[in-house]
Write a structure and sequence with these properties.
By secondary structure, the chain is α+β, with helices and mostly antiparallel strands. About 20% of the residues lie in helices and about 30% in strands. The radius of gyration is 21 Å and the shape is globular.
């Protein structure tokens, strides 16, 4: 296995290091580092990066990476794991999705070392981390006051390997989605680096089910790539294959007011079914929000106060929605924090 250089520091084959890459200081002269964990195996193999908090308020991925780095499965790996728990440290310390200049880091890749703060951070992360890797997993949550069902987002038209890895991750839902200009996924695709985006939970909140599925998924992808040994212990139960949604849409509010949601995350809905009702706080008349097509709720707002046109329910469309609903229900039961039968020997929940 060859040595590699990150932030001007050399990591030898067989070495495990934690590095701090200097970023622009705060205006208070406070030093700001990007902390990077590197496990460089003795044997050659894929180089995968796992990152979280590109949006500074999306914290589920931070806990996923913390547990990943404690996993006994990583004691002997082929290839290299580069883990970055917090990419957007500036947004993280402010409980904010954005950088101090209000730019979205996930819309400025590949960035520029002579550009805005967002551009400089994007450029550094791309050249120091992404460009050195063969594969990547980017961990996200819903935005503030929005909850996402655990799901993998990928462009399944990129190639067979992307779909294979998406299936190996085994989140309950895979959403086939186009890339957005300036996103990490777009620049990875441009450089032929298969990248999965894991979306689960809500900003600024830990969600144990989302964390468990995400942790297991990363380990499964590394197994698929041959980086770690196949699991030898037999599971008491076997989860079904994830279901693929080829499209999705948002049900939006027809007027401003207060929302009473009538469906939960992961629920199956039929075309024409009432999802919720919006009422004026001073009058009794309701406007019902209905499903335009059958599908599964994979995202929803948690805030009752809504404005006209606001996205309320994210619905994924499937060929057979009943089958998809069954798959989602099995995953929710298997990884439910209240389910004492949950067991996965190689990644204890700590």
């Amino acid at each position: 296995m060859a040595e590699l250089f990150i932030g001007g520091q050399k990591i030898k084959a067989g070495e495990r290091r934690t590095l701090d890459i200097p970023l622009p200081n705060l205006y208070t002269h406070t030093v700001v580092p990007m902390t990077v964990h590197v496990i460089n195996g003795r044997q050659s193999g894929p180089k995968i990066f796992v990152c979280a908090a590109i949006h500074g308020d999306e914290i589920n991925g931070i806990e996923i990476i913390r547990r990943l780095l404690q996993s006994p499965a990583l004691r002997s790996i082929k290839g290299t794991l580069i883990a970055v728990p917090i990419v957007n440290i500036y947004g993280f310390v402010r409980h904010s999705r954005y950088l101090p200049d209000r730019r979205d880091l996930n819309r400025v890749f590949p960035g520029s070392d002579k550009g805005s703060l967002a551009g400089r951070l994007a450029s550094l992360f791309f050249h120091e981390i992404v460009e050195q890797c063969t594969h990547g997993i980017d961990l996200h949550t819903g935005a503030i006051h929005r909850d996402n069902l655990p799901q993998i987002r990928a462009d399944l038209n990129e190639g067979e390997e992307t779909e294979t890895l998406a299936r190996a991750f085994a989140a309950p839902v895979i959403l086939n989605s186009d890339v957005r200009d300036g996103s990490l996924r777009a620049i990875a695709a441009e450089h032929k680096i298969p990248l999965l985006v894991y979306e689960a939970g809500e900003a600024l909140r830990y969600d144990e089910l989302s964390i468990r599925i995400g942790l297991r998924g990363i380990i499964r992808v590394m197994r698929q790539l041959g980086m770690i040994r196949q699991e030898t212990a037999k599971r008491k139960s076997r989860l079904p294959e994830p279901v693929i949604a080829r499209s999705s849409y948002w049900a939006r509010s027809s007027k401003s007011g207060l929302l009473r949601a009538m469906v939960s995350l992961g629920a199956k809905v039929n075309k024409g079914e009432t999802l919720g009702a919006v009422s004026d706080p001073f009058y009794l008349e309701d406007d019902n929000i209905t499903a335009q097509n059958s599908g599964i709720i994979i995202g929803k707002t948690n805030l009752p106060i809504v404005t006209e046109g606001e996205a309320l329910f994210h619905i994924a469309r499937f060929g057979k929605a009943d089958n998809a609903a069954d798959v989602v229900e099995q995953y929710q039961h298997e990884f439910d924090p209240m389910n004492e039968a949950y067991e996965w020997s190689e990644t204890p929940i700590v």
